[in-house]
Design a protein that fits this description.
Blueprint (H helix, E strand, L loop, with lengths): L3 E6 L5 E5 L4 E4 L7 E2 L9 E6 L5 E5 L2 E5 L3
Antiparallel strand pairs: 1-2, 2-3, 3-4, 5-6, 6-7
């Protein structure tokens, strides 16, 4: 089972969903299908996802915040 803990819209209109394990799933077809992004593993359970400067993805977890380049 997967638990989603966050979501945001990317600059190109794509939808990004965040799981508690730190996996990001992206849809570019109005949420009909999703693909996993290749990101480094999260150091702790993640609880929030937001868009940062220049479209970066910002993650919040028990160990603080981190950013990753959006696709």
């Amino acid at each position: 089972p997967v638990s989603f803990s966050g979501a945001t819209q990317l600059p190109d209109g794509a939808i990004a969903l965040l799981t508690q394990t730190g996996q990001v799933l992206v849809s570019r077809d109005d949420a009909r299908t999703f693909s996993a992004l290749a990101l480094p593993p999260a150091p702790a359970p993640t609880s929030a996802l937001a868009r940062g400067d220049a479209g970066a993805l910002v993650f919040a977890s028990l160990r603080g915040m981190r950013a990753a380049s959006a696709p």
